[in-house]
Specification:
Layout (H helix, E strand, L loop, with lengths): L6 H7 L5 H13 L2 H16 L9 H17 L6 H11 L15
Helix pairs in contact: 3-4
């Protein structure tokens, strides 16, 4: 395991006596603890649920921003169906991008 490590990784773990100690240290370094992962999931769920179009943002960059949040959620094991994603995205559009609804008056 040490032979496959970079110099930086090696300096962190070279004094450890067991492979388990090495593995646990490297896992925390690169993957984070379960608490960190849980906090990331909470953060990105919150960003998803409260997603809005930023002022001055166009729809293309908004979509990219939205996809980044969805990708982070997927990597944490959380997925949403396409209908929920579309609903959130359309709800998040600024007034400029929303369709104008006109009411018809009976004559």
């Amino acid at each position: 395991m040490l032979c496959a490590s970079s110099e930086e990784e090696y300096t962190k773990v070279h004094n450890f006596k067991s492979v388990k100690q090495i593995w646990d240290t490297l896992a925390v370094t690169y993957d984070g603890t379960s608490q960190v992962e849980r906090n990331k999931l909470i953060l990105f769920t919150h960003k998803y649920e409260l997603f809005i179009m930023e002022e001055g943002e166009d729809t293309q960059s908004m979509f990219g921003h939205f996809q980044t949040i969805l990708n982070k959620l997927r990597s944490s094991g959380r997925t949403y169906d396409n209908y929920a994603q579309i609903e959130i995205f359309l709800r998040s559009l600024s007034k400029k991008w929303r369709p104008q609804i006109t009411t018809l008056r009976a004559s």
